Amino acid sequence: MKKADVKVGAIVGAKSEEELKKPFQGKVEKIYENSALLAITSYDPVDATAISDLNNKIVVNFKNLKAARAAKNSKTASTNEVKVEKIAKTKKANKDSKK
Predict the structure, then answer these.
(1) Taking the model in full, what pTM does it have?
(2) What architecture does CATH give domain 3-98?
(3) What is the CA 1 to chain-centroid distance, rounded?
């Protein structure tokens, strides 16, 4: 892939010649001069330990990126998204907090 084809937030297919044995998919988080930082989103279970060691992130050269397709027989990495909801106080809780 060329630098002009890579966009932040895009899901791309990639391979790492040194770190991982199988191809994987990742979401582009940052673009550098010759490479991109990917948050690994889908990978082969054989690479699970290496992915964990990398904290689900890897820098990959543009020449090792390609347009993503649906991965089969792969494991999807969990995201670090947390949803926070406000919980309404009950009348008893309000009385307890005033004491």
Answers:
(1) 0.68
(2) Roll (2.30)
(3) 19
